[in-house]
């Protein structure tokens, strides 16, 4: 199966997600990009810098993209009715937020870069919103990758390469693509799968010793 | 997974089943989940659609204040029993507008295939459900048929206005709704495929030109436009009319046209209706954007 051809893998990528409007690429997709950052960073940052490119840069105000990104970083889901108030909620939690726009040409019209910063940790993430709420991650801390991050895809972080990889492969019955990179002190496993990853499976992977972060799925 | 509409229709013929059944079987296979789990998830989507339409008909206003209460006007117009066409048609417009008004008000909706085009499929479904007295199962099947056509479109072209213009959003939604309506009315998989192609043919090259970058003007009314287009395409297909250009070639056309559209009319809020004197004035008043 030429699985790389399928940007969308499920009926629910087309009918869904259930979300707070007004735009699946600019709002729901943006929430999910924020969710990825949340999952990797694991806590609320002190400082958040968001840079919008392309169509995001032109229309992020009207589409609620700014509130959506912040909502995602706070860990809200696409249908959370607090999304419109996310910036206020974040500021109350002591997050300083900066929104920038860039005129730099990007491959995809809806590109955003997030920087999450505090005393201990820094995360730099670039992602694109490809439509209908589906997103792809293009860069993590300047390592480039191209993962479909929607239903049926996973991204796994671990500190223990030797023991974790076989576990991951076992857990994900049908990996389409596995890539391993070194990032700071951690070994990162990028695992893309053809089939859906259930919440149950995510929980099972989280329980594997050495795994420190697993991407949320939308199933 | 099926890669083309031709393949989708062929599978339905080979298995002597509907297109919705092919989509459901593929979902079971690729997700590893049971039919019940999949049906339950689609039921949640359907319930979200019903709730959004009901809320919109009551009347909502967007955050910007630019749009709202048009679905309520359509309902009042229907109540007076003086419509030009028929109740089902006007109800479809009403539910489509209602859904997209809720979307513009940052309310909860189900993206179908996107948020900007979320009104078309529910608009058609909820209006014709009343006419056909459809069961819940038939309504879920409608959504799976729509999903099957959207799935091919999304994988072979695009479903975002930023990538391909409004043809990718309202166009895709219109094609999806037309095909699903044909199946609901008892048409064949081929007729569904022609309805999809006819609906999309009519919207090739449609600009995505939101005024002030907001999913309001012209998006909300375009959901009604896409809805009426879907119904007329379904009527033609059920009458035995075919799209001379096969559905897959129409999808490919949408891709090519989308790639060649200038950025101004791909959701940047610069060109098209957004670039009119009034469009610019609204952008300046709301966000201080001056072009």
UniProtKB/TrEMBL annotation, chain A:
It holds the Pfam family SDH_beta. Signal peptide: none annotated. GO terms for biological process: gluconeogenesis. Residues 10-80 form the Serine dehydratase beta chain domain. Keywords: 4Fe-4S, Gluconeogenesis, Iron, Iron-sulfur, Lyase, Metal-binding. It comes from the Bacteria. Belongs to the iron-sulfur dependent L-serine dehydratase family. PANTHER family: L-SERINE DEHYDRATASE (PTHR30182), L-SERINE DEHYDRATASE, BETA CHAIN-RELATED (PTHR30182:SF12). This is L-serine deaminase. It comes from Candidatus Enterococcus palustris.
Automatic annotation (TrEMBL), chain B:
GO terms for molecular function: 4 iron, 4 sulfur cluster binding; L-serine ammonia-lyase activity; metal ion binding. Residues 15-274 form the Serine dehydratase-like alpha subunit domain. It catalyses: L-serine = pyruvate + NH4(+). Its cofactor is [4Fe-4S] cluster. Coiled coil: none annotated. Pathway: Carbohydrate biosynthesis; gluconeogenesis. InterPro entries: Fe-S_L-Ser, Ser_deHydtase-like_asu, Ser_deHydtase_asu. GO terms for biological process: gluconeogenesis. Belongs to the iron-sulfur dependent L-serine dehydratase family. This is L-serine dehydratase. It comes from Candidatus Enterococcus palustris.
């Amino acid at each position: 199966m030429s699985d790389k051809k399928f940007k969308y893998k499920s009926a629910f990528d087309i009918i869904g997600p259930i979300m707070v409007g007004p735009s699946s690429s600019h709002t729901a997709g943006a929430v999910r990009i924020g969710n990825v950052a949340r999952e990797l960073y694991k806590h609320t940052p002190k400082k958040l810098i968001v840079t919008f490119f392309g169509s995001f840069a032109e229309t992020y105000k009207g589409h609620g993209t700014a509130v959506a990104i912040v909502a995602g970083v706070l860990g809200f889901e696409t249908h959370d009715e607090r999304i419109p108030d996310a910036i206020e909620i974040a500021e109350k939690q002591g997050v300083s937020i900066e929104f920038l726009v860039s005129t730099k040409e990007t491959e995809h019209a809806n590109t955003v870069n997030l920087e999450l910063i505090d005393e201990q940790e820094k995360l730099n993430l670039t992602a694109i919103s490809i439509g209908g709420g589906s997103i792809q991650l293009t860069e993590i801390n300047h390592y480039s990758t191209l993962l479909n991050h929607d239903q049926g895809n996973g991204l796994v972080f671990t500190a223990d390469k030797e023991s974790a990889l076989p576990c991951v492969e076992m857990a994900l019955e049908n990996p389409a693509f596995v890539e391993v990179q070194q990032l700071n002190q951690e070994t990162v496993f990028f695992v893309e799968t053809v089939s859906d990853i259930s919440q149950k499976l995510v929980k099972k992977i989280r329980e594997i010793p050495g795994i420190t972060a697993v991407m949320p799925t939308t199933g | 997974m099926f890669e083309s509409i031709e393949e989708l229709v062929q599978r339905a013929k080979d298995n002597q089943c509907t297109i919705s059944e092919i989509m459901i079987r593929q979902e079971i296979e690729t997700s590893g989940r049971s039919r019940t789990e999949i049906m339950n998830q689609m039921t949640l989507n359907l319930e979200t659609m019903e709730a959004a339409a009901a809320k919109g008909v009551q009347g909502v206003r967007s955050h910007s204040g630019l749009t709202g209460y048009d679905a309520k006007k359509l309902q009042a117009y229907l109540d007076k029993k003086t419509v030009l066409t028929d109740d089902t048609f006007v109800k479809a417009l009403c539910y489509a507008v209602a859904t997209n008004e809720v979307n513009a008000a940052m309310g909860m909706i189900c993206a179908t295939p996107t948020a900007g085009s979320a009104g078309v499929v529910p608009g058609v479904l909820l209006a014709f459900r009343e006419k056909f007295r459809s069961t819940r199962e038939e309504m879920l099947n409608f959504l799976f048929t729509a999903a099957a056509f959207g799935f091919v479109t999304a994988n072979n072209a695009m479903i975002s206005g930023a990538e391909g213009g409004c043809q990718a959003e309202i166009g895709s939604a219109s094609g999806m709704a037309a095909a699903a309506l044909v199946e609901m009315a008892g048409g064949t998989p081929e007729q569904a495929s022609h309805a999809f192609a006819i609906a999309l043919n009519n919207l090739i090259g449609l600009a995505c030109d939101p005024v002030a970058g907001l999913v309001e003007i012209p998006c909300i009314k375009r959901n009604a436009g896409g809805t009426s287009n879907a119904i007329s395409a379904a009527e033609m297909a059920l009458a035995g009319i075919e799209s001379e250009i096969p559905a897959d070639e129409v999808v490919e056309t949408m891709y090519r046209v989308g790639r060649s559209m200038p950025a101004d009319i791909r959701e940047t809020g610069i060109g098209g209706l957004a670039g009119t004197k009034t469009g610019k004035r609204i952008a300046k008043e709301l966000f201080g954007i001056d072009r």
